[in-house]
Amino acid sequence: MSEQITKVNSWVLGLTGGIGCGKTAVSNMFEELGITIVDADIIAREVVLPNSKGLKAITAHFGEDILLPDGALNRAELRAKIFTNNNDKEWLNALLHPLIRIKILNDLNNATSPYVVLVAPLLFENNLDKYCDHTLLIDVPTSVQIARTVKRDNTSSEQVKSIIASQMSRADKQQKADDILNNDRSLNLVHIELVDLHKKYLQYALHNKTNSH
């Protein structure tokens, strides 16, 4: 499938960070400031909703067993299937990545706020940063990521460690990001710094708009 859109009209801030670093809390702050949020995780769920092209293709490939009684995708079943079969995993990625990308680009282009935030845990890993003008990493120590995720998802620290190990390392993300926001402190302090960043991004977006006309 070809990607129709490759250019985004808005000034885009890519927001990323590993599991448990508090991306949602920070993206909510941007939303409160009137900035449109495009969330890659939400879009990844939307492209496999009942009656979607994505879910129809998945059902044709894996059979009706991949559905829950209400017709929704059985994610646990799908994870189990692709976990043991690399070909199926590659097939699924080849199906979903273009669908997700097209929806992301459409949503970025439809944003009406002064700039738009693209939230993606795998921003750098999936090359989504190529659609961004600037990137912001929400950063906490690995020990904090583990503690927060274990508490939030009621999961084992081993499981969280394996998720962290499968993502780009914290040091590599720090190297790649244009800005880093430390989220290992009170939300009040995080908010104060975020408002300063927001003012800077408004300037960047305005400058970008002026230069593109």
From TrEMBL:
ATP binds at G20, C21, G22, K23, T24, A25. This is Dephospho-CoA kinase. Its EC number is 2.7.1.24. The keyword Isomerase does not apply. It is an enzyme of class 2 (transferase). Pathway: Cofactor biosynthesis; coenzyme A biosynthesis; CoA from (R)-pantothenate: step 5/5. Catalyzes the phosphorylation of the 3'-hydroxyl group of dephosphocoenzyme A to form coenzyme A. It holds the Pfam family CoaE. GO terms for molecular function: dephospho-CoA kinase activity. Its main location: cytoplasm. PANTHER family: BIFUNCTIONAL COENZYME A SYNTHASE-RELATED (PTHR10695:SF46), DEPHOSPHO-COA KINASE-RELATED (PTHR10695). It catalyses: 3'-dephospho-CoA + ATP = ADP + CoA + H(+). Belongs to the CoaE family. Keywords: ATP-binding, Coenzyme A biosynthesis, Cytoplasm, Kinase, Nucleotide-binding, Transferase. The gene is coaE. The keyword Magnesium does not apply. It is found in: Cytoplasm.
